[in-house]
Amino acid sequence: MIAAQEETAELADNMRNTVQDGINRVTNNLKKYFGELNNSTGATKVLVDSLILMSQHVDILMTGVGALAAIYAGKYITSLASATKQSVEKTLLICVKLKLRKFYYKRKLKEPAKTSKHCKFSDKILSWHKRNVII
Question: Contact at 8 Å (CB) between 94 and 131?
Fold first, then answer.
């Protein structure tokens, strides 16, 4: 029986080590180290007590996490709405300016200077949009 055990040990020693074998050895050594550390100093007691406390009060913890998520979602949606509003305003202004250019092109007129009444008209449309369209 002892000969069979020695033969089996010799065969095991001659086998190639795999990555899983290495991971198992590291895991075992870490468990041994932390077990001895805990026995001598009680270092993991705080961690264990914290985990137990969290598990007993999951409902309170998740309520807090949900509240934080709602706050961040609200900030994100607000900034998204603001960016969308600015984009719509810019698009409307571009459309008004393009319509004015098309108007002048069809009539073969020179485009007015920035101070003309038609540019003031496009500014009036944009200011009306800012006052009346809620995004």
Answer: no
* CA separation for the pair 50, 68 (Å, rounded): 21
Phi-psi domain of 129 (left: phi exceeds 0; alpha: psi -120 through 50; beta: other):
alpha
Torsion, Cα of 41, 43, 45, 51 (10° steps) = -170
What is the DSSP secondary structure assignment for residue 101, as one 8-state letter? H
Q: What is the mean pLDDT of residues 36-55?
A: 78
Between CA 29 and CA 24 the distance in angstroms is 9
Across all residues in the chain, what is the average pLDDT? 77
Rounded to whole angstroms, the maximal C-alpha distance in the chain is 110
- Written as six digits, the tokens of 35 are 């077990």
